[in-house]
Amino acid sequence: MLYLILSVLSGASLIFIFKLYERFNVHTFQGIAVNYITCVLVGLAFPGGTDVLQPQVLQKPWAIYALILGAIFIGAFYLIAITTQKVGVTAASVAAKISLVIPVLFSLLVLKSSLKDYTFVNYLGMALALVAIVLSSVRPGEVGDKRTPRLLALGLPFIIFLASGFADSLINYVNEYHLQAHEASQFTMLTFTASAVLGIVVLGYMLLMRKTVFRARSIWAGIVLGIPNYFSIFFLIKALSAFGNDGAFLYPVNNIGIIMTGALGAVLVFREKLSALNLVGLGIAVLALVLLSYQEIAANLF
């Protein structure tokens, strides 16, 4: 239970930090680039972390997928940051965590590796997930004001939903067909390294073309983000082991915890005003995750 709580807190903290980026005028992409460098450095400090530095790692059958995933990670992370700042903490956390629907469908329809028979209730949960994204993302946006236009407020969360869901599905595919159990840490480290390298290349291009000026605060901002980012994965893996690797139970519970923590922090810390529709969307998001895995939840709780 301790690892589950730590996973929820570290996962929710990432979105809070993005909101603080806006408050302290941190250059978002610079902070994200430094964040992935921090993730790599933290990973190197753990036993086996230096294995990713060996050239033969790139000869692994899963290496190309790790590189692709690294690109998706940094892109999705940037979108989550922008959504947090432009739309809100609640919308960003709901969109990122409700994306669980996509890898569930991928496992069911493509990999055909599901260990349970999905019922009407499970499929209802998947449908409600889409409704939750819309309702939690609705924001007023009249022409000429400074608030986010409605189309952008709805579009950004859906892009996060698709990108996060695709990333999780790719992880499922690699784990099913290419990855050995003892290679998980190498795969994770190579993914973070790919994100870090891509971030450095893009940031270097922006600096050379004078599209941005590097800010010293991006260093500490990236470190503050990178440490919980690394441990959000670390604690999630630990929590999976603690619950017998029952991802069908743990992922929904973990995601519900992050969504609720994000909403609570949005209201209490950042003074976000949630409309009645936003609150309904938040409730539907929790309901959707429960319906998706009600069998596992019932089995573990009762």
Explain what the structure shows.
The chain has 302 residues and is an all-alpha fold. It contains twelve helices and no strands. The protein has helices at residues 2-23, 28-44, 63-86, 89-97, 101-111, 120-137, 150-177, 184-208, 217-242, 247-268, 276-292, 294-301. The protein is globular.
Number of strands: 0
Largest sheet at a glance? none
Average residue pLDDT: 84
What structural category characterises the helix and strand content? mainly alpha
N-to-C order of helices and strands: HHHHHHHHHHHH
Number of helices: 12
Rg from alpha-carbon coordinates:
19 Å
The poorly predicted ranges are 141-145
Share of residues in helices:
over 70%
For the record, give the distance between the C-alpha atoms at the N and C termini, rounded to a whole number. Answer: 16 Å
- β content, as a range? under 5%
Shape: globular
Itemize the secondary structure elements and their pairings.
Elements: H1 2-23, H2 28-44, H3 63-86, H4 89-97, H5 101-111, H6 120-137, H7 150-177, H8 184-208, H9 217-242, H10 247-268, H11 276-292, H12 294-301
Helix pairs in contact: 1-3, 1-9, 1-10, 2-3, 2-8, 2-9, 3-4, 3-7, 3-8, 4-6, 4-7, 4-10, 5-7, 6-11, 10-11
Brief sketch in words of this structure:
The protein is 75% helix and 0% strand.
